[in-house]
Protein: Universal stress protein UspA
Organism: Pseudofrankia asymbiotica
Amino acid sequence: MSVERFGPVWNPGPFELGTDGPGTVVVGVDGSRTALRAASYAAGVARRQRARLIVVYVTMAPGWESMAPMAAGAVQQAAADVAAEIRDVVAHRAQELGLSTTLVVRLGDPLDALRRTADEVHADMVVVGASEGAGHRIIGSLATRLVRTGRWPVTVVP
């Protein structure tokens, strides 16, 4: 897991009883259209609420050991390239908006990675993009599975 922080240091200020809105927003990104819209929505919420934004990028780990060495290397390099591109975009947008933003890059299952991250940072809200794939009808979409977890409010952005 790698963690990088961008923008000003988050300072929640003095404790306020009955604070409205989330203090920590977690958003899952994977480069898809809906994930980018979810990231924009989450950034807007974080900016308006003066919340910290945790951006989670999860790279799936296919069976590296069963792949040919050249193919495994190419897949790993592609995942690293996507993570670097997301890191650059997050850093640039955080600076533009004056947001306290943390990028978390994890390896594994997106559902597990988002749940673990949201639990670790004590998220008040999780934002994901709506599934565009057909496979979600069989195993359920990421958003549906997050909602079933029931630990935090989940916003699904179309």
Q: What stands out?
A: Residues 9 and 18 are 23 Å apart (CA to CA). The first helix runs from residue 33 to 49.
